[in-house]
Amino acid sequence: MGAVLIAGGAIGYNVLSTSKASGPEIAQPAGPPTIDSLKAAAEADPLNSGAWQELGFAYYETEQYDEAAKAYRQAIEGDRDNAVLWSSMGEARLLASDAVQMPGDAVSAFEKALELDPTDARARYFMAVRKDLADDHEGAIDDWLALLKDTPAGAPWEGNLIQTIEQVGKVHNISVEAKLAAVAKDRPKATEITAGNAIPGPSKEQIAAASAIAPGEQRDMAVGMVESLEGKLKANPKNPDGWVMLMRSRMTLGEPDKASKALKDSVAANPDQADRLRKEAAALGIS
């Protein structure tokens, strides 16, 4: 099950950090009051997909995978055609299972995600994992290479995906170097992608600063920073860099629905920058 272990945290809304050990405290608001408040908000509006999605994300970040799966399942009730919710549920079901092989309910969730969106990165990744677990290592590597070819350069899961290909190739004595080089040559250079590194503003490190502050107060500080940025963008929406900063900050706070709204608002305000903004969003895992 090595491929699954390599994959953990690599695809989807958990793109905030590729390593839980190095992730900032605020990126995973794990305290019970925070989850309780998210749960209360979700239960108050059973068909509010965004609220249940945020609850699922919070459970995922605290490794409560069974609860995360249930929350994503309820999110689907409010948005049944959202491929990201189906693949999120599939990953949570997989991680909640003690089975050595891929559990059937996870597979069915990934299949549904791909039915809705054949490009869904997480579902594609784990269906390739399924091939690897079934001893079709060549097929799994080919599928991962196809996913890599479609992955925006600089996407948060890019490094994990390459590592998976290299490690599975090494374990099963399959040469992958030439194939990786060919994919790298064919992939377009993403010179405009700045999400997560080149735009100044409230980063994960800044949000997690002042460690002496209580976690709840840290989050209040972070929310205040992000809301201030959002207010400035409402007053001056012709600022693509600012919108990218807002999208990144919303994802850092575990608010993918608000990040998606920021994407829509940014494109509406800057139609001439729509392609760039969508690429930036894709690099952050925003749909």
UniProtKB/TrEMBL annotation:
Coiled-coil region(s): none
GO biological process: cytochrome complex assembly
Keywords: Cytochrome c-type biogenesis, TPR repeat
TPR repeat residues: 49-82
One GO term describing the cellular component: plasma membrane
Protein's name in the database: Tetratricopeptide repeat protein
Organism expressing this protein natively: Pontixanthobacter gangjinensis
Keyword Amino-acid biosynthesis: no
Signal sequence residues: none
Pfam family, one: TPR_11
InterPro entries associated with the record: C-type_cytochrome_biogenesis, TPR-like_helical_dom_sf, TPR_rpt
Keyword Protease tagged: no
